[in-house]
Amino acid sequence: MYAQMVKSEAAQDDPEKLAAFQARIDAGEKIEPKDWMPAAYRKTLIRQIGQHAHSEIVGQLPEGNWITRAPTLERKAILLAKVQDEAGHGLYLYCAAETLGVSRDELTEMLLDGRMKYSSIFNYPTLNWSDIGAVGWLVDGAAIINQVPLQRTSFGPYSRAMIRVCKEESFHARQGFDAIRKMAEGTPEQKKMAQDSVNRLWFPALMMFGPSDKESVHSEQSMAWKIKMNTNDELRQKFVDQTVPQIEFLGLDLPDPGIKWNEERGHYDYTDPDWSEFFDVIKGNGPCNTDRLAARNKAWDDGAWVRDGLMAHAKKKAAASVAAE
Amino acid sequence: MKNEWPLWEVFIRGQHGMSHRHVGSLHAPDAEMAIKNARDVYTRRNEGLSIWVVEANHIAASSPSDKGPLYEPSESKVYRHPTFFDIPDEVGAM
Amino acid sequence: MTRDEAFLQFLLRMGDNTLILGHRVSEWCGHSPVLEEDIALANTALDLIGQTQFWLGLAGEVQGDGKSADDIAFLRDVWDFRNLLLVEVPNGDFGRTLMRQFLFDAWHSIQLGHLMKSSDERVAAIAEKASKEVAYHLERSADTVVGLGDGTEESHRRMQESLDYLWPYVGEMFQSDEVDAEMVAAGIAPDPASLRDDYDALITRILADATLTIPDSRFGHKGGRTGKMHTEHLGHLLTQMQWLQRAYPGSNW
Asked: Which of A40, A220, B85, C230 has its CA 20 to 30 A from that of C61?
């Protein structure tokens, strides 16, 4: 349905302007906030950047779940710095979206009342300490594969935000691998936790790339606009190829009996995730959807008096300094 | 009541004597808090030695449609670039 | 009490304060009123955790039985902890968290100023590093206390309630005992009671800007820094913080 909406809006834009716009993108030029852009381009970007920002913010929750239980002072500091980075990434991305004429508060409200989505991976729980390693290594690993190409996306502010995000993101994957490696090489109980994490998070991580290209409604136009740089299946394959040897390095069992090197393709074969589960989670029926949104709503509602209080003080101060002049 | 904190643009001068560079934006109730927030948000990895903040709606910007008149005239002034001039090798560094 | 025993107690007091407060502040991560505050609070918590590693690391050295900062943090029970009661009480709302931070930062910055001149070089070095971090904590928490105190009617009310709730925990910072006497004699640390005037001057100024009223009472709860009687809250905090180390002893993390 959304794809239809995009189409009908595109039809309203002046075809000459549209062609000139496409030519700029094809020539590798960056589109900046004040430039003319098709209404659907703006709308798609707000949706995509907004969802991305929301994912960072909701993504703080599953990992934040373990900050107070981190097993050493150093792990606590690393995890806290990492989850703090997610807040930073959300902030960069909200700012990029704001250049398109939507405010952060508006975007936040759309997240909180369910009009906008966030990555379904964050609707899965973190149940043991090893999940913290697995989230950094697998989930951020998958995110990096998604995000690296977006540094070249056509919209300037988005591209610049992604450059900053990617620079910080490799710390995340590395700390995650380091944490799960300690578990995989630790006591039998620790190894069991590591295996449990990989088994549980593998398919949700694969789902992060989105449904197969055959079923993805936004792909074609977004690729032409360089808002999306690769197909979902390409990126998913890249993730599998990169990650399988790492699981083997850790000495853990592969989470999917269907994983096998395919000499002919030059890639690993793997079992497709259960897409009905994916669509269930999107619809709000993942294990943690309700809790995640409740936590974000609580933070927002409980914080209203703080935001208003500090703003009121700033206004008083400004008024007093004007009066003094 | 809409009471959103205003948006600020953040400029940071790094370690190597370079000019302040735009690094991103953030929200803050006033300039003082904007500087503090910039410190917390944009210098987490030892990036900065000096911070400027400007409220975003105070920035005047050139319009993209002026790109031709603003920037193309300088394209033809090639003589402004040192490589325009041939200096014989035997003259040495210049 | 030997000098080393007193020194150890002193180091535990410093390190447990930063450990427990760092832990409390970290509970906000992902739940703050606005992203910028979330990020700033995490920075504060990170500084405090870093300071903990130094103080408890040195405590382990002084104790001399090969214990690491982690051993000390994760393998002691409530009665072994020497932090102020102020830092272990639950966060409450954002206002109470920031009010506590301010009340602690004000003491912390004055204390570290003295410790930078400590006769023990290791103490002086830790204080030197920590004092820069804490100067910023204080600037930020003081600004926020002023902003919220002198903000809206609701924010003012909440900040006054926070101050009223926390005030009885302030006095403990200035209670001196034989550990402190030994530290003063050794030139390692100042007498806590001697910090009170500077402290009062500082907080009176800020709280006045915040349009808040300091409660009349000088009553102070005690029992944290001596370990004689913590609040019930500390035990719950430890059940989370120490869970993995306790459930899976001897593992590498």
From this structure: C230
Tens digits of residue pLDDT in C154-193: 999 999 999 999 999 999 999 999 999 999 999 999 999 9
Residues of A in contact with C73 (CB under 8 A): 73
**CB environment A22-59: b (16+ within 10 A), e (fewer):** eebbeeeebbebebebbebbbbbbbbbbbbbbbbbbbb
Mean pLDDT of chain A: 93
User: pLDDT confidence of A5, banded at 50, 70, 90?
Assistant: very low
Mutation target to probe the A interface, by most A beta carbons within 10 A, among B1, B21, B27 is B27
Q: State the virtual CA torsion across A52, A58, A64, A66 in degrees, nearest 10.
A: -100
Query: What three-state secondary structure class fits B18?
Result: coil
Optimal mutation site among B26, B30, B40, interface C, most CBs of chain C within 10 A: B40
Helical H runs in A250-325? 275-280, 289-324
Q: Report CA-CA distances (Å) from A288 to A34, A138, A294, A300.
A: 39, 19, 10, 18
| Single-letter code of the amino acid located at C16 | D
Ramachandran category for residue A226: left, alpha or beta (phi over 0 → left; psi -120 to 50 → alpha):
left
Report which DSSP code applies to B49: S
Inform me whether the C-beta atom of residue A314 falls under 8 Å from chain B C-beta atoms.
yes
B33–C40: do the CB atoms touch at under 8 Å?
no
Please report, as a single letter, which amino acid is at residue B79: Y
Contacts of B63 in chain A (CB under 8 A): 34
Structural domains of chain C, ranges and CATH numbers in brackets: 3-171+180-247 (1.20.1260.10)
Using CA coordinates, name the residue in chain C closest to B45: C43
Neighbours of chain B (3+ CB pairs under 8 A): A, C
Contact flag A309-C146 (C-beta cutoff 8 Å): no
A304 contacts in chain C (CB < 8 Å):
33
Q: How far apart are CA C120 and CA C187, in angstroms?
A: 8
Residues C62-71 as b/e (b if ≥16 CB within 10 A, e otherwise) read bbeeebbbbe
- The per-residue pLDDT for A217 is 65
Task: Locate all alpha helices (DSSP H) within B20-66, ordered by sequence.
Answer: 31-42
Helix or strand (DSSP H, E) at C63: helix C35-63
Q: How far apart are CA A210 and CA C24, in angstroms?
A: 37
pTM, entire model? 0.93
Residue A266: HSE in the Cβ half-sphere, 13 Å Cα cutoff: 0
Q: How high is the ipTM of this complex?
A: 0.96
Nearest to A311 by CA among C78, C184, C155, C209: C155
The b-or-e profile of A188-203 (16+ CB within 10 A means b, else e) is eebbebbbbbbebbbb
What single-letter DSSP state applies at residue B79?
A: G
pLDDT tens for each residue of C91-117 = 999 999 999 999 999 999 999 999 999
